[in-house]
Amino acid sequence: MIKVAVDGMGGDYAPQTIVDGAVEAALAYTDIDEIVIVGREDAIKRELKKHKVQGGQISIHHASEVIDMGDSPVKAIKKKKDSSLAVCIDLLKRKEVDAVISAGNTGAVVAGATLNLGLLPGVTRPGIAITFPTLHGISLALDVGANIDPSAHHLVQYAIMGEAYSRFLLKKKKPAVALLNIGEEESKGTEVLQDAYRMLRDSGINFIGNIEGRDFFGGKADCIVCDGFVGNVVLKMIESIIEVFVSLVSNEIKKDFLAKIGAFFCQNAFESIRRQTNYEEAGGAPLLGVDGVVIIGHGISSARAIRNAIRTGANMVENQVNNHIIEELKIREQNHHTGSANPTQKPTA
Amino acid sequence: MIKVAVDGMGGDYAPQTIVDGAVEAALAYTDIDEIVIVGREDAIKRELKKHKVQGGQISIHHASEVIDMGDSPVKAIKKKKDSSLAVCIDLLKRKEVDAVISAGNTGAVVAGATLNLGLLPGVTRPGIAITFPTLHGISLALDVGANIDPSAHHLVQYAIMGEAYSRFLLKKKKPAVALLNIGEEESKGTEVLQDAYRMLRDSGINFIGNIEGRDFFGGKADCIVCDGFVGNVVLKMIESIIEVFVSLVSNEIKKDFLAKIGAFFCQNAFESIRRQTNYEEAGGAPLLGVDGVVIIGHGISSARAIRNAIRTGANMVENQVNNHIIEELKIREQNHHTGSANPTQKPTA
């Protein structure tokens, strides 16, 4: 029995694309037993009526308030107790659902999940992970914005969580983990990175060392660990790159009659690249380290993006990724001297 | 009379591509009176013999030692006094040349220039700037690797230096300067960035606020200011992006017969994009803030890249960019309360 709650009011095109995406997911995925759309009942009902598939897997859970994109995250989550996001997280906390998907205010999702769900045993800071296409398949990068000034210990936790995600969800056998740095040598980068390098080398995971920006899309690393600042800059760059290239190609092709004909024949190839590099296909970004499955969608999420984010949430539940993370952290922390910045949060099991 | 010294032994393909590039520059640029190739005389002579244009604008200045890519920058520059790089910088210091170009060990170039030339009045840390193509012309970004943990004051200096470079060398009338951050609001990012934001707002330059990774190639900002860590990651990503896209496009096109034909017609357009995004055309990266014109080339510099880097160095000399930087720093520091981390280095003029 997998139940997923979707923040019906979160995202630039909510509730429409959220409801559309939930319906798409309900039609596509028979392993998901229920999709609960949380938000203003009237608005969500209105959207649902546009679809033929009412009832069945889809249900509505009313929430009267909305957290806006511009709201201060911590303030909003504390004040708007009946917001669609706060109610989603509450349903997850009370185990009435197994996963939450929100394309709303990212800061509020992180704050809400951290404050209300708490962290997994062994975790001191959550991190947002994204998957992205490389020349050799899909890779994972984290953190991309939850923690802009991480300690070495936080980075090590990100590595362990990302490794577990790569193994148990992306089904990679022995994921190669790397630190994003400005050079390959151990001595490169900030002290925090140098410390993290040493800790990771001794952690027992398949740590392949530092990689540079030029290796980001090469696929050498299955899991790239970085601070949330550089991760966020890079993430947003990736999102824009395809558009930039499409513009560059269009500009060039406009200048040249033969190229116009050529582009016509190439359009399937271009479309395929666009699809590979499109955030819609990525399926949202898991917030790793919180005690529950939380998937963050892009603010501009389309129905397709929401559908894929729901898929990712269900995958995390089915593959018990959080249990594996707890296990991995326990093993690595105890056996491989990664240290702990917060001993009170060590595994209690 | 413009005289340029080129580090003949610096770079992965030195001395060959360096000599080739120097010869290309000598043939192409009549405003450059002399190009001094510094390094092992025999090796450079051997390369020069392959060209018909001996003598004339090109001369050789012997230096017996070589700083390798793997050498520790500060140690190497202090120990290898007769290295091609140290001798180049020495020629610049003694005003026997007006500019130095090196595609060697970047850290050693930064250390050598900083230690031996000193900094311009008003500057507390040098920064490496790069130019890159956007959807609306060429933009500048700095720092991309000299200073991975800058203070707010350093960032403000980078902004002022980059603004002057954009104005007096890239000939932009009122360059828009932005901070690279994880959100547009003043409250985003680290404390250092928040402080820099406030200082820049009051500095009198055309500061347009924060921009995110997705705006990097949009051309909204003429000059993007960032710390050397994120700048370096982004720089190396940019360099690899075109290769990644070429690979993606080739893979897709191979699958599809029609696309193969299409690609044939598109090849001029593709080639034009490759040229626009190629580091070779960028003309090296000026090291701004040191007391002298120093251009850093990519380690893998081709002859064309070296030629363009020589062009950039000569442009900096002709446009008196460093004098303008001194002036700008004096005005901004005195009138706009950007503060100074090191009052002893304030303008003495």
From TrEMBL, chains A, B:
Gene3D superfamilies: Isopropylmalate Dehydrogenase (3.40.718.10). GO terms for molecular function: phosphate:acyl-[acyl carrier protein] acyltransferase activity. The keyword Isomerase does not apply. One of its GO terms (biological process) is fatty acid biosynthetic process. It catalyses: a fatty acyl-[ACP] + phosphate = an acyl phosphate + holo-[ACP]. It holds the Pfam family FA_synthesis. One of its GO terms (cellular component) is cytoplasm. HAMAP family: PlsX (MF_00019). Belongs to the PlsX family. Homodimer. Probably interacts with PlsY. Catalyzes the reversible formation of acyl-phosphate (acyl-PO(4)) from acyl-[acyl-carrier-protein] (acyl-ACP). This enzyme utilizes acyl-ACP as fatty acyl donor, but not acyl-CoA. This is Phosphate acyltransferase.
